[in-house]
Amino acid sequence: MFYIYCPYCGEHREEEEFHPKGQAHIVRPKEPESCSDEEWGDYLFFRDNPRGIHHELWVHAVGCRKFFNITRHTVTYEILETYKMGEQPSITAETYAPQSSESEAARVAKQAGVRA
Amino acid sequence: MSQQQPNRLQAGGRIDRSRRLSFTFNGQTYQGHAGDTLASALLANGVDVVNRSFKYSRPRGIVAAGAEEPNGVVQLGSSEAAQVPNVRATQQALYDGLSARSTNGWPNVQRDLMGLVGKLGGQFMPPGFYYKTFMAPASMWMTYEKYIRKSAGLGRSPTEPDPDIYDHMNQHCDVLVIGAGPAGLAAALAAARSGARVIVADEQEEMGGSLLDSRELLDGMPADRWVAQVLEELAGLANVTLLPRTTANGYHDHHFVTLHERRTEHLADIAPLKDGRRQARARLHRVRALQVVLATGAHERPLVYANNDVPGNLLAGAVSTYIRRYGVVPGNKLVLSTSNDHAYRAALDWQDAGREVAAIVDARPNPTGDWIDAAKAKGIRIITGSAVIEAKGDKRVSAARVAKIDLDAFQVAGKVEELTCDTIASSGGYSPVIHLASHTGARPTWRDDILGFVPTLVKGVSAAGGAHGIYALADTLADGVEAGASAAAAIGHQVLSVELPEVAAIREGATCALYQVPHENPTLRAPKQFVDLQNDVTAAGIELATREGFESIEHVKRYTAMGFGTDQGKLGNINGMAIAARCLGRSIPEVGTTVFRPNYTPVTFGAIVGRHCRELFDPERYTALHQWHVENGAEFEDVGQWKRPWYYPHTVNGKVETMHEAVARECRAVRKSVGILDASTLGKIDIQGPDAREFLGRIYTNKWEKLAVGKARYGLMCKDDGMVTDDGVTTCLGDNHFLMTTTTGGAAAILEWLELWHQTEWPELEVYFTSVTDHWATMTITGPEARHLLSEITDIDLDRDGFKFMEWRQGKVAGVPARVFRISFTGELTYEINVQANYAMHVWKTLFQHGEKYDLTPYGTETMHVLRAEKGFIIVGQDTDGSVTPEDLGMQWCVGYDKPFSWIGKRALSRPDTKRSDRKQLVGLKPKDPKVVLEEGAQIVFDPKHPVPMPMVGHVTSSYYSPALDSGFALAVVKGGQHKMGETVYLPMADGKTHEAEIVSPIFYDPKGERQNV
């Protein structure tokens, strides 16, 4: 169960208070009538399913009722940031610097403590 | 030595010899002491066989002393309602009157018929035996399974309701320490002294872990003295919560850990009363921690040798635990087979208890270290470079066959010596308990230096002590302090120094890698060498699996069932992986890592459910008039969480009306005089702001710019794919103020829908939404006499031309401020009276005082459905299913094609798919036989003579008997139906009958709509 920071309430709250609303930053075309059927179909039905960084729209349904965005890693489920409507993510798939496998191994070795 | 407890020591251990407890096991009465577990008491009484094995029905005894016990799984409970399956005898505290039975074994564990099958058939029962043998014919599997299950036996659930209650508790803490052994206590101390909020959870009856049976001294004192000191300090700190008898069972996202606290299971099988009230038997703590320290310790690995499952084969560490903690020596003559130094203490404890050690058999050629010196000093025979290759005995070990072994060549390298003994203790090293870390999805890492997997940890989690392979006591304590201090520091707490107790350093040699012990015969021909005792998985089974092409350890597990079920591979997994690796010529990490899933040990369903059962399973919502409905005999229907009156059966001549009779009577009253409905559950959203009107125009399909104050309009809402999602009447209360009604079930979702569009797409619109569903009670009076009735108790002018259909007025009804809406869901003259909810009962009762002369009749949702369907009024979610457009419903009159803003759903209506002429469209169906009421959901075909499968062209969405028409009638969706009026369709039923019906207009009653306008 996620632990989500609501950028409007300024608090971490349990996932039970929130509803996920799918991929974030899907903009409704300004002039739907000038969209081709294919463009309209893309807007309606097609969504990303990335392994890694994903921007999601959530709503604090039983809290402040505000919609906001989450940048989440779909492998570790780590929530890297939450930000208000109208704002842009500071972490994206392009800018995200994962800890390299080397440093992860180093971290594990350190935790394992070779004192034994 | 007690006569009744032949294996009980006269002194020592942490049991209370002054408190004698009586218990029964398989119907036989035994004695134990306070402080015993069921397992220690059984061993004290010399009970060797506690179970029969799952597949081969071999006799099995206690192996371990904790959660990792694979054999001692019992059925608990002295009465039917108290039955609990899957209890580990090693984890069950003894109480007076405890009653337990073996899980497997028929007719009993001593004489078991299936044992014969296991003995004779064992050679012929390879992995996959059941599937291979009973595969054909497939239809017979259900029959086979019944008998196989009976003989296998997995425990059983009670057939009577559980009298116990269970709790949930949501908790937050800074540092959660899991495990209260040396590492956990040290971590807790460091974190607690920093002022951090700390929860310490430990699964055992007593906190202290390995310190409770340690031979080592802390500050020159016995280890348990230090434990007592630390616990006393922790218990005195307000920022610390100690949870004994509490297992951390699952590690979920973002440091959400579920703790299963057993609050009364050490007292009785049904929770005793306290102050006259039933105590909560178990509590599930839902803990959200900022930092977690995993101090879960390590499980000792047994060695895999022939007949290593005969009762009397134990883990070396368990032998020490039983002697030092429970004052029980589980035998008379011991052979210890080990690959490491630490296990030597089992032999030392055994000899200290005054019993004979036949030999220590060490797989290493030249073991050196303090433990070895201690054993030599006591004159214990040490056989090096060797191992126990086979146990002799049937229901109890009678001898150990010992031989020199060549580890590199994996073969016996010398003559076999047979040592008489009744107990074989074995140790193949230690496996860190990485289950919880594994729940996060992080793969563990193999370390050759400790011959075990260590956890890979996500941010905010650390491991301490044995949980990541640090075993020496002094190091474990220091590691615990570091973990606790770092966790507290990471969240900003100032850490004070913790002085560690002095522990004498112990020189220990390296452990050698020994998992399966070679036998004189090859693995497939040797007597069974068990890897997973609970699932009866043998070394030969794993070898066979690899030969049959199962190379991934995950496939081997599924093929052999290794690590399945309640055991979750606590003892067997690493040995199994090592055997697979040997057979495949790979290293253990190359064969794969192992994954564990929640729960760590079985959790009773009661604890998972907590108080969310019976009437608290889901919240129930009542309207302000609920009590009246109850008093007037209403039957209720669940609509979302609401309890709505379904119909009000009368008693006529001592006979209670059927629903059919009641609904017919209620329908007639509405059509003839006047009926009343509690419509309070309809969703009501108050919409205000200068842009409220513009917003409505964008979200609804129809037009709103000209709706005047005082008027109401029906609206249809689509998703942007053009499919109908909700409908309702919205009223203009003021130029910037509207009241929207939604379907009962859709209220919350529609409010969220409005907010979604406002907040994400049109934040520039100034508009505000507030749910007022519960603030207003709504009473619908409908029927030709509605005006007469209302006029008696209101100051509102009800003149037909002054207060027209689709208008609303403010005034007083029964002396109470009210909003009255002239809208209709029945097709009759209707007034919907809205008053503040807490005045509703007064208004409702006043209406009845005046209503008697008009035959005012309360009606429920069933009558409401019939009346609205007669008028062809849809119910979103019943007549629509998310694939129906306004045009499919024939509601083009409700679509503003020329609105300037491209409203939600508009663009999709011109997609090729929504333009198809053969879309399913809403129509009425008139059964050819008026007595037939078609089944809702029944499939419709055009040609009943078409060979099966027939093309299905639609289905019935609503169907009722109409008293007004004296006929069944239905709404349905039919492909191209709007252009097939008068045509006949067919409805083939499951019983072979086929109904005929004519496609008609969905408006069956008063097609011109005159009655609502009177």
Automatic annotation (TrEMBL), chain A:
It comes from the Bacteria. InterPro entries: SoxD (IPR006279), SoxD_sf (IPR038561). Residues 94-103 have a biased composition (Polar residues). Residues 94-116 are annotated as: Disordered. GO terms for biological process: tetrahydrofolate metabolic process. One of its GO terms (molecular function) is sarcosine oxidase activity. It holds the Pfam family SoxD. This is Sarcosine oxidase subunit delta. It comes from Litchfieldella anticariensis (strain DSM 16096 / CECT 5854 / CIP 108499 / LMG 22089 / FP35) (Halomonas anticariensis).
Automatic annotation (TrEMBL), chain B:
One of its GO terms (molecular function) is transaminase activity. It comes from the Bacteria. It comes from Litchfieldella anticariensis (strain DSM 16096 / CECT 5854 / CIP 108499 / LMG 22089 / FP35). Keywords: Aminotransferase, Oxidoreductase, Transferase. Residues 920-1006 form the Aminomethyltransferase C-terminal domain. Pfam families: Fer2_4, GCV_T, GCV_T_C, Pyr_redox_2, SO_alpha_A3. One of its GO terms (biological process) is tetrahydrofolate metabolic process. Gene3D superfamilies: 2Fe-2S iron-sulphur cluster binding domain, sarcosine oxidase, alpha subunit, N-terminal domain (3.10.20.440), BFD-like [2Fe-2S]-binding domain (1.10.10.1100), FAD/NAD(P)-binding domain (3.50.50.60), Probable tRNA modification gtpase trme, domain 1 (3.30.1360.120). NCBIfam families: soxA (TIGR01372). Residues 527-608 form the SoxA A3 domain. Residues 174-469 form the FAD/NAD(P)-binding domain. InterPro entries: 2Fe-2S-bd_N, BFD-like_2Fe2S-bd_dom_sf, FAD/NAD-bd_sf, FAD/NAD-binding_dom, GcvT/YgfZ/DmdA, GcvT/YgfZ_C, GcvT_C, GCVT_N. This is Sarcosine oxidase subunit alpha. Belongs to the GcvT family. Residues 625-899 form the GCVT N-terminal domain. SUPFAM superfamilies: Aminomethyltransferase beta-barrel domain, FAD/NAD(P)-binding domain, Folate-binding domain.
